[in-house]
Structures are given as C-alpha cells and as structure tokens.
Amino acid sequence: MRTIGETAALSCHGCGQRTDPFVTSQKYRGAVQFVGWDDGSLLEAASWRLASELVRRHPSTTRLIRAHPAGGQYDLLWVKPGSSGSSGSISLNRNGTIQVPDRFDGRRSDWQPTQWDEYFRADPREFLVRLEAAAGLPAPGQLPAATPMTLTLRVLATIAATGVKSVHPIEIVPGYIDTSGYGGGPNEEAFESFSAIPRELRTPRGTYLDGDYRFWFVYRDDVPVLAFEQSNAVAWTQHHDVAWDVMKLYTESRRHVLVTALKLLRRVDNV
Q1: CB-based contacts of 10: which residues, under 8 Å, 6+ apart?
Q2: Which of 28, 44, 45, 154 has its CA 20 to 30 A from that of 52?
Q3: Rounded (10°) CA dihedral 129, 132, 133, 134
Q4: In this prediction, what percent of the chain has a pLDDT beyond 90?
Q5: What is the pairing mode between strands 176-179 and 62-68?
C-alpha cells in the first residue's frame, strides 16, 4: 500500500519547483528551511495560517496533513477530503506554489499555480475566499463552531507565527512522516520525547487519516517541545506527566486563540 505521498508522486503534476531536498542552509540551529528561503519562518507561519483557516471553514469535509511527495522533493501542507474516496485537494507547497489539483465538488480545476509572494501581497481574506471557491468549497454562511481538530490546527498556526524572524525558529512536524522518499513512517523520535502520550491513543481506529496522522509536534530550535493530538485537542510538554485540555484552555481564555497558544508555551518554559 502506498502512502499518500507516494500516491501523490504519480499525480501531483506542476506542484511547483523541484530541486534537491537535501540542500540545506546552515544559517542557525533549527532554521526552518524551504527551497529558496534562508529563513523559512515567514512561509511556515503563513502557510499554516492559510491551511488552518481552510479547514476551520470546512471541518466536516477537509483534513490537513503535511506530506513530501515526488521523492520527498515537495513539502506540502495538504488539505485533503474528510473521508476516503472523496475528491478534492489543495496543495500548499512550501518548496513551490499554491495549487488546486482537484476540486472538492468533482469539477475540473482551473486554478493556476500561484507563487507565495502573491499570497503575501494579497488581502488574506480575499485570497482565502478565492482559493476556497476555486477548490469547489462553498463559503460558509457563518464560521462553524470550533472542533477539537480545527482548534488544534489554529493553535499550531498561532504558535508558528511566534517564530517569524526569530533566532528561536518554530516548525510544525507531523506524527506521521508521509513521503514517497526514504525515511517515511511514524515520527518515533518525536513520540519518544513525550513519555506521557498514552500508547493506546496512537492506535488506528480504522478511519481516514487516522493513527499517527492525528498527532503534531512543535519543534523549537530543532527540539520537540509540544505534542498535540487533534481529535481530542490535547497537548503535552516534555516535562509534565499530564495532558493539557486545549479546548478547556481556549474556553478559559475567552475563546482567544493567541492567549491559548501563549498559555501552552508558558507551560513549555515553566513561566
């Protein structure tokens, strides 16, 4: 059975620039690196903001993974259908361009590959709505209520934003390394850093994008400092033996995502 990344390697035509994925820039420890960027922190934060808002607006029909198709040459935040067998794909390739390979309504996509510079210069709401429409996702009449998954993704996007142009860069890394190249599979190195994560929580439930796909890790200075499980919206630090209820923190923070994210980062630093 192919990983999603391996399948994409056969169909992800025109996902953007292709180059050697092992060419890196040793500017400073833990630098977030994408092709053509000495400092990828802005692209990390912006791509996470866009991806998390798309899923926030369509929580029942979309899922988000990070994948490395085409032999590991792409670095996608990939908005996929919410269930197996459904159509739809938005590829936010941090080594290339923003793509809509397949619409979610089954119609032919006419979205043209879009450079990240265009997104940076655009009004973020206008761009989001335009991308959403091009992908066949109907604009919601009002924003859906937060779910454990959408809240987790929004908190991750907010944490990524705290690392922009910082000497302590932040990268969001998945629990399952989905790649058609070498080195795919469960991110055991990250899981081993969080002894409080129950092993049984990683057990696949037989649903789409399940198991370790549900986990995300926040790396700061190339070290995993926070772990998240999105279906329950829980988080762990390396040095606490309890899980933090992210939805509870969000409610206590008067539903303010930035305050919620900062509370979690305070727990990382014990301040």
Answers
A1: none
A2: 28
A3: 120
A4: 79
A5: parallel
Burial of 181 (0-12, 13-18, 19+ CB in 10 A): middle
Terminal C-alpha separation, the chain: 46
The three-class DSSP label of residue 37 is strand
CA 59 to chain centroid: 14
What pLDDT shows up at residue 77?
A: 98
What residue has token string 């727990």? Answer: 267
Check residue 20 and give its pLDDT: 35
Residue 173: is it exposed, middle or buried by C-beta count within 10 angstroms (0-12/13-18/19+)?
middle
Look up residue 6 and give its two tokens: 């391996």
Q: Up-side HSE of residue 175: CA atoms within 13 Å toward CB?
A: 24
Three-state secondary-structure class, residue 252? helix
Helix (H, G, I), strand (E, B), or coil: what is residue 247?
helix
